[in-house]
Fold this sequence. Notes:
This protein is an alpha/beta fold. It contains 13 helices and 21 strands.
Amino acid sequence: MDEEILSFIDNHTEDALRDLIHLVRIPSVAAEGGDSMERAAEAVAKMLEAAGMKATIHPTSGASVVTAELDVDAKRTLLFYNHYDVQPAGDLDMWDSPPFEPEIRDGRIYGRGVADNKGDLVSRIWAVRALTESGLDPPVNVRFVVEGEEEISSPHLEEFVRANRDFVSADGGIWEFGGEGLDGRQEAWLGLKGIVYVQLEVRGLSHDAHSSMSCILPSAAYTLVRALDSLKDPEENILIEGFYDDVRPLTEPEREAIAVIDVHEEEMKHHYGIDQFVLGLSGDALKERYYGSPSCNIRGITTGYQGPGSMTVLPAEASAKVDFRLVESQDPETILRLLRKHLDQHGFQNVKIAWSEGYPAAKTPVDHPFVEAVSRATERAFGHRPVIHPTSAGSGPLYLFRGLVPFVSVGCGDYDSRAHSPNESIKIDNFVRSAKRAVFVMDELAKM
Length: 448
Ligand SMILES: [Zn+2]
């Protein structure tokens, strides 16, 4: 079976690239909306149908979710989660070729969305197509969930998952992103951190005052800065009472997994232009913090006058955006409540949480058999086993699928793919191998 399928994939690389180019030409920027979203959903549904699957477009209160199924009455079911929306193109002058007119140069294909996430989507559909056009049934039932709002925090995916719990329940799932690390090795990500983000606002005066009045009038800016300072000490400890109560330490299998990861400390320091990481961390301590610790970050502070020259003002208001990345078992609503309590108890009753959003973390256990299945499939397609990351430090809607499907995230990106940036691209070789890996994942899952 292997040989036939693999040569089908090799022989149809041009067709798959044509599909990818077709999809990238549709500027499905979720942040902008418009009729491109529906056109992209329809194009995806057509590709899924062409691969021999039964596709459905589900309207939601936002962009549609496209699903597809190929039920072959197998014991096991594999679910692919992808998205057809993309980030805005950004500054067009920074692109070497137009973002929505894909171009192939030096073995890479360039265009907005090729890495995040249309390349992955097309490679997976291509894998199914390779089987069905060779007259073979996949060894597992295959399902796709392709949403159109991932880049704007998936606001309507929850309503879809709630209404379709049976459909999204599966024995294994392949999440949207992944690829090759700095050292050329494939990487597999088993989870995503949760997040709480808030907008803090202080209004001190009814209107801006002359700065000379600061000797008798309260300062919104100082109040905000002190409130922010109260959240974390210089040793990076988050000082909100109860914040760490639900944090579980990394498991022994997770420790074993991260022990063999090379995080390329020197390259990373060089990349960010720093001499050292926080607290001077390195080695295991640095990795444990990356994979196992929550964080508190100031995203932005706005207050007063920041234009040229001087303007003697005492600003009436000040605001800041703050985010907390959460690890498994921390509950965003609890964290939000603890934050409010902390502010009140420290005399910051006048610091308002004007706006907040968040969701919990989720991850698949390192020792889950599906992780091994994906590792073996990766070895068969790429010639080596992937680096296993117990979680990514980033966040995403993975939590919606908790308890329904064990997800592993592998994909066709690489260290230089520049998702969300100008000149986004993937290596065509990884695109081809990713399609092969998807076939092998089906095979390994069937044997699991
Ligand atoms: Zn993205």
